[in-house]
Design goal:
Layout (H helix, E strand, L loop, with lengths): L18 E3 L1 H12 L5 H13 L3 E3 L2 H11 L8 H16 L1
Parallel strand pairs: 1-2
Helix pairs in contact: 1-2, 1-4, 2-3, 3-4
């Protein structure tokens, strides 16, 4: 990510149906990032869309918090790979 603190609009095309976001959805997102299939910008954009778009609801408060951690960079926080790995561990524990 070249610049920090910038923002952009999040667009979600929807048929109006409500999608419930479960741990498995965020696990796939984390895995895609850790495997290099998507970058930091894509990860944060998707997590932000899940968090703010009215067509998505989280199955639990814990899952919602995981999405928040993926969408919200901390300027002085740990490297993103560590955050994503920690979120992935938490998601796996939540499912177990």
């Amino acid at each position: 990510m070249a610049e920090r603190g910038r923002s952009c609009p999040v667009f979600v095309a929807s048929d109006g149906s409500l999608l419930v976001v479960a741990a498995s959805h965020l696990q796939r997102l984390c895995t895609a990032f850790l495997n290099g299939e998507i970058g930091e910008i894509e990860l944060r954009y998707i997590a932000t869309a899940l968090d703010f778009a009215p067509d998505f609801r989280f199955i639990s408060k814990e899952i919602e918090e995981c999405a928040f951690f993926l969408s919200s960079p901390e300027a002085d926080g740990p490297p993103l790979h560590k955050v994503v790995s920690a979120v992935l561990r938490a998601l796996r524990e939540h499912v177990a």
